[in-house]
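name: query_chain
kind: protein
chains: 1
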Amino acid sequence: MTTDPPPALSAPAAQELWTISTVAEYLGFTGASATGSARRQLSRWGIAAVGREPGRSGQSLYRAAQVRAAHLARPGRGRHGARRNEGGRFTTSSDT
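structure:
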């Protein structure tokens, strides 16, 4: 899933850059609108492009570390943040 930055950009070796297509794949978006969905998600998270691939059809480049961190910090599915007890059941505010 990782891509190398284009040679035109002088990015430090520790800074990995991903194209929007790579970001969309990492976030699990598929189909014709995958890159648009990924752009909207990155915008919600406040992640801006740091560069662009060379050429007319070059894609925007994003810091992979920022994308990974934002993706890991997002809430999971379920009861909107409700915690589970040791038996696996959701707890409510009155169950504490």
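note: The first strand starts at residue 17 and ends at 19.
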